[in-house]
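FOLDING PROBLEM:
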Amino acid sequence: MEINMTKPVQVQAKAFKLHIKCRDGFEGTLVDQDGKPLKEYEGYVPSFFPGQHYGDYLILDIDIDTGVITNWKKLSASDIEEFIKEDEA
């Protein structure tokens, strides 16, 4: 006989997946090794952020055990140079 009953089952939480709507209000500061600003930025989410964010969302997967953002790719010097030059055109 099948019955409808909920019983607790132990699970292990592994990741916290965040999709955060920025409403064209993303802000960030790129700093050097001394903590001095290289570029202050306000606007759409920069293109090098992970996921199909369309400039409006932060899509970050955080490992609960380590606190590491697991879907972040290592940025290249050209990624950073392009980001710095964006507003100069």
Remarks:
- The chain has a mean pLDDT of 87.
- The first strand starts at residue 15 and ends at 21.
